[in-house]
Amino acid sequence: MVFSCIPFLFFFLPLCLILYYAVPFSWKNGILLIFSLIFYAWGEPIYILLMLFSTALDYTNGRLMERFGTTRPRRTVFLCCSVCINLSVLAFFKYADFAVATANAVLGTQFAQPGIHLPVGISFYTFQTMSYIIDLYRGEVKAERSYAAYLTYVSMFPQLVAGPIVRFSDIQEQLHDRRLTFDWFAQGLLRFMMGLFKKVLIANQAGALWEEIRVLGAANTSVATAWLGALCFTLQLYFDFSAYSDMAIGMGRMLGFSYNENFRYPLTAVSVTDFWRRWHISLSTWFRDYVYIPLGGNRKGVTRHLFNIAVVWFLTGMWHGASWNFILWGVYYGILLMLEKYLWGRALAKLPRPIQHAYAFLIVVFGFVIFAITDFGELGSYIGMLFSFGAGRLADTRFLWYLGNYGAVIAAACILSCPVYPWICQRASGLSRKKSCALSACAGVGVVLLFVLATAYMVSDTYNPFLYFRF
Amino acid sequence: MITNMNIKRAVVCALCLVVLTLSVCLIVSPKKEFSENENRYLTKFPALSAKAVLGGEYTASLNDWLADHFPMRDFFVGLKSQAEIASGRRAINQVYIADDDYLIESYAAPQNTARITDTLVSFYQKIDRTSVDVKLMLVPTAVTIYSDKLPQNAPASSQMETAQAIYSASGIPSVDCARWLADNASQGQLYYRTDHHWTTLGAYCAYLAYCDAKKLTPVSLDSLTAQTVTEAFAGTLYSRVNDYSHKKDSITLYTNPADDLTVTYLDTGEVTDSLYNLDYLDEKDKYSLFLNNIHPLIKIENQNAASQESLMLIKDSYANSMVPFLAHHYSTIYVFDTRYYRDGPSSFLSEHPEIQNVLLLYNMNTLDTDTGIRGIY
After folding, report:
1. Residue A319 within any structural domain of the chain
2. CB–CB of A240/A417 below 8 Å?
3. Mean pLDDT of A336-364
4. Which of A77, A262, A457, B220 has the greatest count of CB atoms below 10 A from its CB?
5. Is residue B22 less than 8 Å (CB to CB) from chain A?
6. Residues A215 and A85 in one domain
7. Contacts of A217 (CB under 8 A, 6+ apart)
8. Does B24 touch chain A (CB under 8 A)?
9. What is the pLDDT of residue A468?
10. With bands split at pLDDT 50, 70 and 90, how would you rate the model's confidence at A392?
11. Which residues span the domain enclosing A289?
12. Is residue A1 part of a domain?
């Protein structure tokens, strides 16, 4: 189930919240667990068993590590056991087809691909359970006693399918004791709404234009159109992904949990290094804490540092999908980070701010083209279109047509990619009480109206005239 | 007292109220089977089966069912379209929001031109051209004739280039209705504002082009009885755009008082004396009133025809509103809809040597997207 659909918004979530608030505290985790399992089973009725297996494994390993892991080597055994099984499961379900296809291409063999479809959320929950077992090994958390509580942590529906990757250490206390106040509920609901609007009103529209431009073909694509397409995909990805995080954080709040932020206006970064401190923070800190730093980070000499960066970014690319273009995308960032660290990072920081923003933004937009197109042939020709500055290819009327049709949505998206909301809040804090109330009243009416509009978009979603039309 | 906290409370309550009201209404409201505005059947409640549940199809169709039966669905669907138009969108579901309240279907780059030409060549080669006169009329749609009404910068492929390519490659003598339509574009409304068809006036212009090519004396509009049968025609393009505030169309019918017609629908066996079935005025798709919607083969006889000749008309739905003008010139017209007539009109022609005239009439949009024309041979 996705958050921006009618069954979720009008049945699942209200029902869950009503029951959640109606029962005494000791039952709340139970309600949350039941609804989370229903949520997962709604889209993945079979693979729910895989998730139950994964959590049972790490829960058991955790208990055993606590009970018998009196020495470091012993603890290492449990750690290796858990990490190996988790990674094998992930490798099998996510990368088996990819590995067979790559082997066939390299060796010229004809092995049949197993054709496994990817279980929803497996990349996220595998990383969550691994964070638990690694933290336990390091003595940073205590083993969880209750399997139900542990399963609740892993399967919690707000973050199950699209993150953020919540660390067990951040949430263990809240699993057993959390406060539920109206203020938190209100904050959470508004945050959820913000995510819903971003997803339905912006990400989907930008995505529609990207899909249209992508299939135009070289004859109809000018340089300006190609860059507009790349910009649309960037906006789609950012608004889609950060919207999911907003909705997750918002629902977490409504349920009394506090999750860390996952995005901090990444499109306003001033360098590639800065971008990765702002984009999908829960993933980059995961790789930092569990791969990069254990490998020695930057403390073991330049060669080792470069190697460590290479490993982390190869893995980051691979995590995003079982296809070479994702790995290429990771390597692209790995190389850029190395260059910033050792070549032009300092010089860049001395340039005027607008140039720094433009530099990072162009790198990010171009990077997402590599991310967007899985097929290398298509990717090559799209990149060709981005740079085909031949005569009469710079812009055409089709570009103006798209700009007229989608200009308002793109402009809104660009504005919302910047920290306008915190800026308004900051300005509003200095206002008189009367003015501040007037402002929040307007904002409130705006939220309700936008919710009605978002509902309209969701209701119209099934309408596909080419499938259903009756002639 | 008005404080920020109270405002926040009010907003939260309002949001919860909206959600709960809609979900309760969704459960208790009566369900429709068919959406008039969208012109389609709504999703049926999914049947419960282990296979569908485990495969995930059950929940997917449940999602569609909930969206299709959402309370005030028409309001929400219309709201989305209006919001899109307000945000600057000038094309929704491949339909342009054009000037003067016109909705105009776009013309995508054709995919099947070579195949269509081959079919026409095969059909034409089999005919004995010494005794049968064949004409081909490819009708441009509003996107060509009303190109000046299209929104600024709208991308367009040329229908007339495709038409010329088909005319010359097939070798069938053409009826240049495009010029007649273009010359009369300012004379009145040649296409419906909300539908992909031409109006009876548009059909009349093409009829003049046909008479010109065939050296017939056309019946003047003044000698016909005009009757506006509806002013609430919301056509197929209206249903694709779903802006329910859009202005609707009127339909004007022309009848020739001099004609004495017998219309036989050969699939159902029904016989009438009218080229119109006004029962369709009560339905959504009012264009169906012309020639009683879709029939594979219709025989139209006119006791008072201007000649004793017969015409074989092989066509799509555009021709349905042109037949009332053609009927005056032929004692018998056989009307073939090749999407549904399975036996191939070629063999019909060899079995009926009395037919001396053949007209192939298709509009440029459905010519490429609809497989109908492949049924002619």
Report:
1. yes
2. no
3. 94
4. A262
5. yes
6. no
7. none
8. no
9. 27
10. low
11. 185-415
12. no
Contact B153 A397 (CB under 8 A): yes
- Classify residue A313: in a domain, yes or no: yes
Q: Answer for the pair B109, B165: CB distance below 8 angstroms, yes or no.
A: no
User: In the numeric block, which tokens belong to residue A279?
Assistant: 């984009």
| Residues from chain A contacting residue B10 (CB–CB below 8 Å) | 444
Give the nearest chain B residue to A45 (CA atoms).
B54
Q: Global pTM?
A: 0.89
CB-based contact, B53 to chain A, within 8 Å: yes
Secondary structure percentages of chain B, helix, strand, coil, to 5: 45, 20, 40
Q: How many structural domains compose chain A?
A: 3
Q: How far is B155 from chain A (nearest CA, A)?
A: 6
Q: Look up the domain containing B169 and give its range.
A: 103-376
Name the token pair of A454.
Answer: 């978002």
Q: How remote is the C-alpha of B76 from its chain's centroid? A: 26
Asked if residue B238 and residue B310 are part of one domain, the reply reads yes
pLDDT at A470 over 50: no
Chain A positions in Cβ-Cβ contact with residue B56 (cut-off 8 Å): 43-45
Tell which of B2, B5, B6, B7 to mutate to test the A interface (max A CBs under 10 Å). B7
Closest to A227 measured CA to CA, from A384, A353, A375: A384
Same domain, B54 and B115: no
> Are the Cβ atoms of A462 and B63 closer than 8 angstroms?
yes
Quick one: pLDDT at residue A83? 92
Give the integer Cα–Cα distance in Å for B145 and B203.
Answer: 13
The beta-carbon neighbor of A465 closest among B68, B75, B240 is B240
Interface contact B9, partner A, CB < 8 A: yes
Residue listed under structure tokens 């809104």: A412
Bond into A164 cis (ω within 30): yes
Tokens of B151: 């929104």
DSSP per-residue codes, B304-365? T-SSS-EEEEEE-GGGGGTHHHHGGG-SEEEEEETTT--S-HHHHHHH-TTEEEEEEEEEHH
Q: Is B13 on the interface with A (CB under 8 A)?
A: no
A127 and A273 belong to one structural domain: no
Query: What does the alpha-carbon distance between residue B201 and residue B195 come to, in Å, rounded to a whole number?
Result: 14
| Other CB atoms within 10 A of residue A14 CB | 15
Residue of chain B minimizing CA distance to A408: B87
For residue A428, the chain B residues in CB contact (below 8 A) are none
Spell out the residues 6+ positions from residue B176 whose beta carbon is closer than 8 angstroms to its own.
B209, B213
Q: Residue ranges of the alpha helices (H) in A23-47?
A: 25-43
Active site residues of A: 320
Partner residues linked to B227 by β-bridges: B253
Instruction: Retrieve residue B358's tokens.
Output: 């053949």
Residue-wise pLDDT tens digits, B44-97: 888 888 877 777 788 888 888 888 888 888 899 899 999 999 999 999 988 999
